[in-house]
Write a structure and sequence with these properties.
51% of the residues lie in helices and 2% in strands. The chain is mostly helical and 194 residues long. Strand 1 and strand 2 form a beta hairpin. Helix 1 (2-13) packs antiparallel against helix 3 (73-88) and helix 5 (138-157) runs parallel beside helix 6 (173-180). The radius of gyration is 16 Å and the shape is globular. This is TIGR03086 family metal-binding protein.
Length: 194
Amino acid sequence: MARASESAVDIVRGVGPDAFDGRTPCPELKVGALLNHLIFFTGVRGHAAGLKQPPQAPNEVAEGSDFTAEPDWAEAYAARSAATAAVWSVSEAWAGETALTGSGQMPARFIGGIVLGEWLLHGWDLAVATGQKLNVDDELAAALYEDIAGKAEMARRYGVFGPEVSVPPTAPLFDRALGLAGRDPSWKRPADRM
């Protein structure tokens, strides 16, 4: 989890305000909105879920907040993300049940996989949208692929993932994970944003 967090943080640090209106592989989210989504789910809710705290605690930052309006927002995210990774690096976080949203308790292992996917999938989305490269080693790619393979069909039913993108079986495992999650590994940012 720490390496996944660091990979996403590296990308976030490389995104400037001039990129906020750019398109991403997530058609409904521009770069700025995707940054706020990533920060919320890996820096606020993911942290609370790892601690088994209920979502929407009275003092919690609300979904839809513009984290990028804060001074030093990227470094604030780096600290939040590292705190989330530390929580999920303890075996107790993966035991029992917890919640990421207000839709009820789920197995903590399932929620932990979502947090991992948020860092790596949305980290990749932001990377390709802003001309960067996400650092994902073989172990991270394997963990992500295994998690996505176990939930891709359900995620598609609920509109979390788009239709599977066909990726050759000889492609790198991370590319195959992207395809399972409805992403085209060859996606390029539009020419007008380059």
